[in-house]
Amino acid sequence: MNKLKIIFTEHAREQLRERKISQELVEEVLKDPEQVVQDAEGNPIAQSRYFDKEEGKEMLLRVFYREEQGTRRVITVYKTSRIRKYWKQEEGDPL
Q1: pLDDT tens digits, residue range 46-89?
Q2: Residue 93 domain-assigned?
Q3: Does residue 10 contact residue 25 with C-beta atoms inside 8 Å?
């Protein structure tokens, strides 16, 4: 199995620093997201819920990326506590 190649744009790296998000967490979400939804232009957003120790609560990590020749280029990333706003609820899926 090929190892997924992940590249971070400079903007994404700045967001990691500013928002105190680890690169490892972003890579984990990109490799095995709970959900992949699309933005208004149809670009993929990988997202997963996790417990943020600093915030002391469950958060949603959203990773905006582009798929380019077997590489995922991270455009931006952020975490939010507003899980219900962004989670694509499927029938029978408890939030």
Answers
A1: 999 999 998 899 999 999 999 988 899 999 999 999 999 999 87
A2: no
A3: no
